[in-house]
């Protein structure tokens, strides 16, 4: 079983955020309970993600999701300086996203981290010039606020993180537009479906309703389901169940928690409903899955 870093070792429940700038050496494979956004300031090394090696260098940006494993390998004589930005998904509340009307401007947070590995890391963002300078400035501002802890620093950090994610999403969108695509309208429909799926991946443990998603993504319930059917061939709730069951499978193998606790952890209050759903998706009960693994 690989090391899983707990959020409590880095951040407080009332302010689930932490940032540091460090010269990164080699470190063994590990996972964590929080989101990790990495910016390579200078140098180069190898990023090992889920056992696959990817060369990284100055200007690279990538996100590691909770539960994913990664490591770094830096050759002797080489240096790689990075900024690590760690936070829980709850650090950016749904109410704030809705108030700012920016769910369509957060694709680097809700879409890119859930693409296939080869797309995420072979076609990752690499920034240079003014783009790199702008991102570095935002990260350094967050570092300064975190270290200074002056009045209002928590508010400024939250807003600066949102600005950073919106900015990265802009660069990500420009990168997407460079590839062939049927039409801008079709691209927007696909991206909206991916945003919804990414949101479900980030917030599977919450009580999610079609009404709340409709408000958050400024679309009717009918439109949400139509977009998901077109892109993923499943309804919103079918996709949510799929995400939750996959997370439950991981928890069954990686933890010793009771089945009823795991059901709650992935968003189900009714264990019997969870058991039936798990059987339908996996072909066996949660207990049998744990034993067979």
UniProtKB/TrEMBL annotation:
SUPFAM superfamilies (alphabetical): Homeodomain-like, Regulatory protein AraC
Pfam families: AraC_binding, HTH_18
Listed PANTHER family: ARAC-FAMILY TRANSCRIPTIONAL REGULATOR (PTHR43280), ARAC-TYPE DNA-BINDING DOMAIN-CONTAINING PROTEIN (PTHR43280:SF17)
Protein name: Helix-turn-helix domain-containing protein
Keyword entries, A-Z: DNA-binding, Transcription, Transcription regulation
Gene3D superfamilies reported in the protein's UniProt record: Homeodomain-like (1.10.10.60), Jelly Rolls (2.60.120.10)
PROSITE patterns, alphabetized: HTH_ARAC_FAMILY_1, HTH_ARAC_FAMILY_2
Domain HTH araC/xylS-type: 194-292
């Amino acid at each position: 079983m690989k090391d899983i870093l707990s959020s409590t070792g880095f951040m407080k429940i009332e302010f689930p955020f932490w940032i540091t700038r460090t010269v990164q050496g080699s470190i063994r494979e590990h996972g964590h309970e929080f989101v990790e956004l990495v910016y390579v300031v200078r140098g180069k090394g190898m990023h090992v993600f889920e056992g696959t090696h990817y060369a990284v260098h100055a200007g690279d940006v990538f996100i590691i999701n909770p539960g994913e494993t990664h490591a770094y390998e830096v050759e002797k004589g080489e240096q790689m300086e990075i900024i690590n930005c760690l936070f829980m998904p709850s650090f950016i509340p749904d109410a704030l996203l809705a108030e700012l009307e920016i769910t369509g401007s957060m694709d680097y947070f809700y879409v890119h981290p859930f693409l296939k590995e080869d797309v995420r890391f072979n076609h990752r963002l690499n920034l240079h010039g003014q783009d790199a300078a702008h991102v570095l400035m935002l990260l350094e501002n967050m570092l300064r606020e975190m270290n200074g802890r002056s009045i209002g620093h928590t508010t400024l950090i939250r807003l600066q993180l949102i600005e950073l994610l919106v900015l990265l999403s802009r660069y990500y969108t420009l990168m997407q537009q460079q590839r062939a695509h049927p039409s801008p309208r079709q691209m927007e429909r696909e991206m909206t479906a991916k945003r919804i799926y990414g949101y479900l991946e980030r917030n599977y443990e919450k009580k999610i309703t079609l009404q709340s998603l409709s408000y958050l993504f400024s679309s009717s319930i009918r439109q949400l389901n139509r977009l998901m059917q077109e892109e993923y061939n499943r309804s919103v709730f079918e996709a949510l169940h799929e995400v939750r069951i996959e997370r439950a499978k991981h928890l069954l193998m990686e933890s010793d928690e009771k089945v009823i606790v795991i059901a709650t952890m992935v968003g189900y209050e009714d264990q019997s409903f969870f058991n039936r759903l798990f059987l339908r998706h996996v072909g066996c009960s949660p207990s049998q899955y744990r034993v067979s693994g």
